[in-house]
Amino acid sequence: MYPYKTFTIVTDNGPYITKLILKAPKSVRAECIDKDTFSVYVERIDPKTGKGFLENHTWPGPKIFPSQGYRPVSAAYPCDENGGKVYQSGHIALEMPYQMGAPIGYSMAASLREGGYNALVECRYRVTQVKDIPGEVPINGWIFDESQGDICPQLRGWQNGCSHYEPLPLNYGYFTPDLDHARQSFTALDSNYGDEWEHTFPEKLPLVIWLHGHGEGGDDPALAYTGNKVVAISSDDIQRKLGGAAYVLVPQCPTFWMNSGAVNHQDPQELTSSKSMYTEAVKAAIDEFIELHPDIDRDRVYIGGCSNGGFMTMRMLLSYPGFFAAAYPVCEALRPSDFSEQDIENLKHLPMWFTQAENDPIVPPDGLVLPLVRRLKAAGAENVHVSLFERIVDKSGLYKDGQGRPLEYMGHFSWIHTFNDDCVYDLDGTRVMHEGRPVTLWRWMGRQCRK
CA 66 → CA 44, 71, 107, 109, 218, distances in Å? Predict the structure, then answer.
């Protein structure tokens, strides 16, 4: 029995194990192995119970997904210890296809916890050699079933913490930029970025806050930044667009942000009012994080979130209207009637960029974000934008449906376009501009500063 490591990619739909890295007892050459050399079996285990499960996934439609079975291998080759292809090595990489709708490779389970919360799951693999590896003495009988951890390059710089607000401490995930790496990336600008907007590397760094949706509530903060592709904010591309480097803070709600704390939990109107029992706790977590990182620019604190977190984004803006430099709510769910005329007056000067899909069945834009934006514009708001997508369709070319067309997601998944920086057009179909230049959401964000 020999060890292996998993290799994870955080995709638009969350984390998938896309590769296994086997630590073989002998070195092998590239021509001696292929995709049929090994058989891969996996069991997805609920870490809280130690048992497998059948996953009822309701987003694309009611389906029961298996949590154990065989995964096909699309490629096999010698590799270095991190999975990079080489000609000969004592490590072997097995690549496996992955896609939404094929959850056997998914390391998250939808609605696994009571209350409809998602959960990260343990994936136990058993890799069996099923074809001889040629040589003077053919090799056979290798079995790899001892996990030695996971490799996920997108999680470099990410850690977990907890606030010390005594009434209601919150778990959170956070990203701390590697300043040496960020400076190197900043100075190696390509032609798309080498223009008059670029400046010297900042002494103070912005803070980007993300408030997750309903499914990512619970007690594992990693879920809050891997359940959606929040880690994209820490990518070189978005970090550069934010000015060179930025901190990221992702608080996790123990339940859901819309929870008002009402005593009568049988009354949904009380339970999900326009208030949240977590407002002060989120602000306390933000304040504490800023105190712990004195190089954060207090005039460049940005906040956003999706769905339930979009609601909470607006709730934070209403409660602390002068604190944030800009906001990027995604499919926000706070009702227009919950904004008073004074609220509109307080918010009209705040830069905001909303993202939404026309066919969102959970928070329809006609009843939520669009009436709000009309009120803000009527009050004189000039730096408020809406990217309204007809549908949420994969633009990367990586994910296809059964007919080979770009994969279409449920209309509620508009955060996909936020994290892929696909938001470029305003509600009237024109490009969003800043200082006479077209911008994407993240380039726009990096140039907003509290006045």
Answer: 9, 12, 13, 11, 23
